[in-house]
Amino acid sequence: MNRTADMVIIGGGVNGVACAYYLARRGMKNIVLFEKGYLGYGATGRCGGGIRQQWGMDENIILARDSVRMFEKLSHELGFNIFFRQGGYLILISDERDYDLISKTIPRQNELGVPAELLEPKDIASLVPGLNLKTIIAGAYCPTDGTAYPYAVLWGYAEAAKRRGVDIRLHTEVLIISRKSGGTYEVTTTNGTVHTPRILNVAGAATRNTASMLGIVIPTKPYRHEIAVSEPLKSFLDPMVISIRKGFYFSQSLRGEIVGGIGDPDEPSSSSTASSPEFLFRYAEALRKTFPALGKVRIIRQWAGLYDVSPDARPIIGTVDGVDGYYHACGFSGHGFMLSPVVAKLLSELITTGKTSIPIDSLNLKRFSEPGLTRDPYVVG
Ligand SMILES: Cc1cc2nc3c(=O)[nH]c(=O)nc-3n(C[C@H](O)[C@H](O)[C@H](O)COP(=O)(O)OP(=O)(O)OC[C@H]3O[C@@H](n4cnc5c(N)ncnc54)[C@H](O)[C@@H]3O)c2cc1C
User: Global pTM?
Assistant: First the structure.
């Protein structure tokens, strides 16, 4: 391996490969990306592929909106079909508190260019026939939300980055990072050592571990989230259906499978990615109650991945005071895939020009040492 690089990227998830691509597109040379497993070994390869712009805070609405604009052109730009499908997102509302929140937020989403609307139960029934609406008082729907196939997004970005000269090293784990005099970093991996003036740390739920190699404290915690896929069914479901309150979601893939999951508010932080029968029972019950006709569908596969959760469930993106040439992006909870095109593009701007075209200062690590954290009420736990 080359003994020097202009940029080292740690992590072959969607943020790593996308940022490698945007940096190379901006003309940066000699970029090396290290991934300890294969592309998608972390959360990206385990994610539900959901992409929504319906958020409560401006920062998330704007980032998600701009990501959708990028997803719309991405297959063409990368020369790789990412299977992006704008079937919409339908948020089911079952109590007055959520109704108040969502009906107050939709006008702001509209002002920012997101075409979300409030639906009455009869409109929901015609959008998704078969939903059990007994406890549903309303819905929020955005037709330009959707899904993409996470591996296709990863492979598309990775192939395009490689064509522009990025060196992607799989099965290569970063073990030690140390600062050398003259402002460079020595990055020791399982396959050799590289010297570089710049590091981008996008190691998913392990970002805090790689940051700690430089004495940087990132207050994120990993949480297991499980997900399941059914046998394929004839296409009948356009939108991703979610309940923010229950942490429950399901959609139908282009292959006809029902892909969905449900969070467990009692799950302690851990790095376990084991599958559990308890999840299957909880998910099956939620699916059967929400869409009774799916009660008999056969689940063919389940797996788990890690949400990387910050204290306010908002991402941590940017630089760290006093650590020149170091950049990171982590803490994406269950929404890092949908934000990845714009986050990676903004990181590439920050790294090459010191500025970003959309302000991301509010997502700085420093906020955790200041009072008053704000959480987006649309976060699904
Ligand atoms: C079950 C589940 C469902 C989800 N559903 C959605 C969804 O519908 N929509 C959405 O937007 N988001 C979703 N997410 C969240 C989303 O998957 C993540 O936020 C996103 O993929 C994070 O991407 P990343 O590139 O930052 O990290 P990752 O994809 O985790 O990639 C980090 C990579 O770094 C590598 N790495 C770690 N340590 C080292 C090291 N020392 N050396 C080298 N490599 C290292 C890992 O192997 C990993 O491949 C879901 C997550 C899960 C678990």
Answer: 0.97
Residue 256 lies in a domain: yes
Ligand 1 pocket test, pick from 190, 200, 332, 363 with the greatest ligand atom count within 8 Å of Cβ, gives 332
Q: What is the pLDDT of residue 2?
A: 62
68, part of any domain: no
Query: Atom of ligand 1 at shortest distance to CA of 50?
Result: 8
CB under 6 Å to ligand 1: residues? Answer: 10-16, 34-37, 41-44, 46-50, 173-174, 202-204, 206, 210, 225, 227, 261, 305-307, 332, 334-338
Percent composition of the chain: helix, strand, coil (DSSP 3-state, to 5): 35, 25, 40
DSSP state of 4: B
**Mean pLDDT in runs of 10 for the chain (381 residues)?**
90 98 98 98 98 97 98 98 98 96 97 98 97 96 98 98 98 97 94 97 98 98 98 97 94 96 96 97 96 95 98 97 97 98 98 97 96 91 71
In this structure, the answer to whether residues 299 and 238 fall within a common structural domain is yes
Decide if 275 is inside a domain: yes
- Asked if 159 and 123 sit in the same domain, the reply is no
**Ligand 1 atom nearest to 339, measured from its CA:** 11
Task: Verify that 162 and 17 share a domain, yes or no.
Answer: yes
Angle, helices 58-78 vs 96-111, to 10°: value is: 60
Same domain for 281 and 241, yes or no, is yes
CA of 13 to the centre of ligand 1 (A): 6
Task: Name the residue type at position 49.
Answer: G
Indicate whether 213 and 242 sit together in one domain: no
Total domains, the chain: 2
* Residue of 9, 34, 36 to test ligand 1 pocket, by largest number of atoms within 8 Å of CB: 36
Q: Containing domain of residue 230, as a range?
A: 86-145+221-309
Q: Could you give the CA distance from residue 233 to residue 257 in angstroms, rounded to a whole number?
A: 6
The position carrying tokens 């990206």 is: 44
Amino acid code (one letter) for 8? V
Residue 317 sits at φ, ψ, to 5 deg, of -135, 135
State residue 245's pLDDT score.
Answer: 86
